[in-house]
Amino acid sequence: MKTTLQSVFTIALLSLGLSVSAQDRYLDDVFSAVTVTSDVTYATNISILPMLQGLPPGPATLKCDIYEPDGDTETNRPVIILVHTGSFLPPVLNGQPTGSKTDMSIVEQCTRWAKKGYVAIAMENRLGWNPTSTDQNVRTSTLLQAAYRGIQDAKALVRYMRMTEDNGNPYGIDESKIVLGGQGTGAYVSLGYATLNDENELYLPKFLDLSDPANPTPYVYPPVFGNIDGTDSTYAPIYDSTGAIVGSMPFNIPNNLGYSNDINMAFNLGGALADISWLQAGDVPIVSFHCEKDPYAPIDTGDVIVPTTGDFVVEVMGSRTVQIKQNMYNNNPYGSWSYISDDITTAANTNNDGNDGLYIFKTPAPSTTPNAFGQFDEEQGSPWDWWDNTTYDAMFMSVNPILPNGMTTPAGFGAANSILGNPNMSATTGNLYLDTIQGYLNPRMYLTLGLGTALSINELIAQTTEIYPNPAKNVLNIVSYTVGIEKINIYNVNGQLVLNTDVNNNQKTINISSLESGIYIVDILSENTSVKRKLIIE
């Protein structure tokens, strides 16, 4: 059948008379409720946390919370695993109100993903390191070992989920689509997971104790701490008071053997990569979020310090350094991500120097006025976090009855201390940051996992573009809530261009008084996107 230009426009006019209301799974909230299975044991391994109390390392069960969309009939769903922050120490003991899989920001993010149709998992990992040691080698070694154990634990969880799929698939997952993310110190885990794949990368000079140059000692030694995957049994020697070896203790227990550790993508909220040499061509795509002036996890190459003492721990590479190399190697799938042209991407591109996959937050300068306890605000590093300050203050007082200066902990001190790095802390503020984070991350996961095409994202843009009034007489308003408008063309019913204008904004008012009464097509053009609307002029 021969189709003329006029008949094409007629079909378009008829189609545009229908309201588009379909929601796109994995981009929109398609479920109103979420089911959470709490405290699922995914592994058992050796924790050094008891050593903080002068006890030997011992076995610990590792648990996770699994979020699923309530009422979903889909049984082949992608998985997002999220690792919490907390300086590799428990909440309060770490001097922070956060540090568990039930942190408010963690719960909110997993809930949001489950409402979009994902299976989201909040995981706990083994904790423990010694930030207060006066020996830099102890500080550095115990921190790197903590991050290493976190990588092993995350791999055990990935294998566990694949094992569940082979055993009835109770969580309805697609084991070929797994994303790992981390927040704060959890981001050290996600970035390390995505890039560390060779044990030789553990023997760089910066990862060696060189106090005895003739006998350099690796901070992380796989024969003791286990291989990168955590799939072998290892033992640590036990020494007597003379330094003689008198026995051994287990130091790594393999879990969920026989399954792949592979993931499809990683992301980080803050944190850093232990060394940029770990990142190689062919590594999985990474999306990074970072506060530009994060005082404890540098956005570029810089030093990790102990917050309470300012002591050096290790040099690391932050999100900007990571993304520059990611893009140099073309690890991020620019061929698909380049079709994403919403306002959040536009905002990101104003600060990331063309490194798609990097979102930089420019947070307000800290206050120069001390609080009631003489403390001063710090630069923000994790404005997406929030917590219950009343509860935290009570816990802080019970754990820290005496401050370092010998003063009894006053009421309110813990709460005041907790917000020094996040003075605007609230659920409202935290959720606004998460809006941006998920608005930037979710379309990139969507495309990377093959959950849809750029067309689906453009359909979402189409749903958030409108013209008014309609019918119109003298002026017409056009607005797009998700993408900037570049050009507007207006055609009559015969397909003839009767009016056009450049925009370069997300809204435009056009004088249409010169157009005769009748039916028209308004074509709203953005990068890689064309949205058409029917217009009636009276």
Task: Give me the secondary-structure topology.
Blueprint: H1 5-16, E1 34-47, E2 58-69, E3 77-83, H2 104-115, E4 119-123, H3 136-166, E5 173-183, H4 185-195, E6 208-209, E7 217-218, H5 222-225, E8 234-239, E9 245-252, E10 265-269, E11 286-291, E12 301-305, E13 312-317, H6 319-328, H7 334-337, H8 343-349, E14 358-361, H9 389-399, H10 413-418, H11 427-448, H12 454-463, E15 465-468, E16 475-480, E17 485-492, E18 497-505, E19 507-511, E20 518-526, E21 529-537
Parallel strand pairs: 3-4, 3-5, 5-10, 10-11, 11-14
Antiparallel strand pairs: 1-2, 2-4, 6-7, 8-9, 12-13, 15-16, 16-19, 17-18, 17-20, 20-21
Helix pairs in contact: 2-11, 3-4
List keywords for this structure.
3 domains; 8-stranded mixed sheet; 4-stranded antiparallel sheet; 26% helix; single chain; disordered N terminus; Immunoglobulin-like; alpha/beta; 538 residues
